Amino acid sequence: MTERSEDWNVGLTQDLQDDEFVREHVAAAKEGVPLKAVLLKLSAANRSELAMALWESLSDQQRDAATELSDEQKAELDRRWAEHIADPKSAIPWNEVRRKLRDGC
Q1: 82 pLDDT band (50/70/90 cuts)?
Q2: What is the separation, in whole angstroms, between the first and last Cα of the chain?
Q3: What is the pTM of this model?
Q4: For every residue of the chain, which 3-state class applies, written as one string?
Q5: For residue range 11-62, what is the model confidence (pLDDT) as tens digits?
Q6: Is residue 4 within 8 Å of residue 49, measured between CB atoms?
Q7: What is the distance between the alpha carbons of residues 33 and 28, in angstroms, rounded to a whole number?
Q8: Count of C-beta atoms within a 10 Å radius of residue 24
């Protein structure tokens, strides 16, 4: 489990002391801006802390249900596995995949 501050609200508390931040988010809420859009404006650290807090609030059963693969996803994984078994040389090494992702290819 990721180590995080005892009170994840510390960063949010700091954001809420910023008048411009508060004006922007209060105005957004009054205008009916979706909560997701407002939360995405939090700092990366606060979004990460919030995500961890939400994830950890789920029971094991809820986590399992939330991450269960659909039949289509299972079929795709089976297809890819069969393709790999038929031609193992077609696999792309992780370092190459990572490089392509990093380079935007």
Answers
A1: very high
A2: 32
A3: 0.48
A4: CCCCCCCCHHHHHHHHCCHHHHHHHHHHHHCCCCHHHHHCCCCHHHHHHHHHHHHHCCCHHHHHHHCCCCHHHHHHHHHHHHHHHHCHHHCCCHHHHHHHHHHCC
A5: 666 766 777 777 777 777 777 778 788 788 888 888 888 888 889 999 999 9
A6: yes
A7: 5
A8: 14
